[in-house]
């Protein structure tokens, strides 16, 4: 198992890509600390993982709140499992709205959840990763690599995610902490499904994705597994598109 003995914190783990990561990481031997604001859904996932003989705990978590990171999430991980080896900053939001209609409140909310949370998460785990190293994986987007119409605040926050990943990779390298990002393309999740299953949008996706369709959440989970594992022990500071080839055009 590729994560045997490792302890992984995964945010936004109650659905979509985070849920897939939770199951895959646990199957690969990790003890998983799962966080989300959707605590009922999260508790079901934790129960499923435990029923398979794997170790998991769930925490209700507003990722934009500093106190929850420092006083609950990280202390709970340390109390239950004694170390933190992996952090997956997955939680995020997107509110499609024409650029000229986006408000400062929407901008601030998007930034709080999509990028401030990453800063807080990395700060919170850093003292516990310094001694023996670790792996941090931030979930960005292909919108950080290309221009995309629609949610400008989301695109800006994901650009910041990719940038802070590179900066942290340089800063944390001396501690043998690797920091990488994944840039998902069109991925079928509960949040995106209404758009991706629309017949007109499906044809559009086929026209712009070389592999002729969307990916699924497990595609992102496997990429995260690779970057989190020792298979990627000499990889740091990358932004890895998982997008069916969309961004090479």
What do you see in this structure?
The chain is of the alpha/beta class and 249 residues long. It has one domain: NAD(P)-binding Rossmann-like Domain (Rossmann fold). The chain has helices at 16-27, 39-51, 66-81, 104-129, 152-172, 193-196, 199-208, 217-228; strands spanning 7-11, 31-36, 56-60, 86-89, 134-139, 177-184, 187-188, 215-216, 239-242. Strands 3-2-1-4-5-6-9 form a seven-stranded parallel beta sheet, with helices on both faces. α4 packs parallel to α5. It is globular, with a radius of gyration of 17 Å. The model has no long low-confidence stretch (mean pLDDT 95).
Summarize the structure.
With 249 residues, the chain is α/β, with parallel strands linked by helices.
Mean pLDDT: 95
User: Which stretches of 5+ consecutive residues score pLDDT under 50?
Assistant: none
Beta-sheet strand percentage? Answer: 15-25%
Number of distinct beta strands: 9
Strand order of the largest sheet: 3-2-1-4-5-6-9
User: CA-to-CA gap between the ends?
Assistant: 36 Å
Tell me the overall shape.
globular
CATH class division: Alpha Beta
Number of helices: 8
Helix content: 40-55%
Topology order in helix (H) and strand (E) letters:
EHEHEHEHEHEEHHEHE
* Broad structural category: alpha/beta
Number of domains: 1
CATH names the topology as: Rossmann fold
User: Which architecture does the CATH hierarchy give at level 2?
Assistant: 3-Layer(aba) Sandwich
Question: Over all CA atoms, what is the radius of gyration?
Answer: 17 Å
The assembly state of the depicted protein chains is single chain
Largest sheet: 7 strands, parallel
What would CATH call the homologous superfamily?
NAD(P)-binding Rossmann-like Domain
């Amino acid at each position: 198992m590729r994560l045997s003995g490792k302890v992984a914190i995964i945010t936004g783990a109650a659905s979509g890509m985070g849920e897939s990561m939770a199951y895959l990481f646990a199957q690969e031997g990790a003890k998983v600390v799962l966080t989300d604001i959707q605590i009922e859904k999260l508790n079901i996932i934790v129960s499923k993982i435990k029923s398979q003989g794997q170790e998991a705990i769930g925490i209700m978590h507003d990722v934009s709140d500093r106190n929850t990171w420092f006083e609950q999430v990280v202390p709970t991980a340390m109390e239950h499992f004694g170390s933190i080896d992996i952090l997956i900053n997955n939680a995020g939001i997107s509110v499609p709205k024409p650029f000229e209609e986006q408000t400062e409140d929407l901008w601030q909310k998007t930034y709080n959840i999509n990028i401030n949370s990453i800063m807080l998460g990395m700060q919170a785990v850093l003292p516990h990763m310094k001694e023996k190293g670790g792996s941090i994986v931030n979930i960005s987007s292909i919108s950080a690599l290309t221009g995309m119409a629609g949610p400008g605040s989301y695109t800006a926050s994901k650009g910041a995610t990719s940038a802070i990943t590179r900066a942290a990779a340089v800063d944390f390298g001396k501690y043998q902490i690797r920091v990488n990002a994944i840039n998902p393309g069109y991925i079928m999740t509960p949040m995106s499904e209404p758009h991706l299953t629309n017949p007109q949008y499906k044809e559009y996706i086929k026209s712009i994705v070389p592999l002729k369709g969307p990916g699924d959440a497990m595609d992102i989970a496997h990429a995260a597994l690779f970057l989190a594992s020792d298979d990627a022990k000499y990889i740091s500071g990358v932004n890895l598109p998982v997008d069916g080839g969309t961004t090479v055009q």
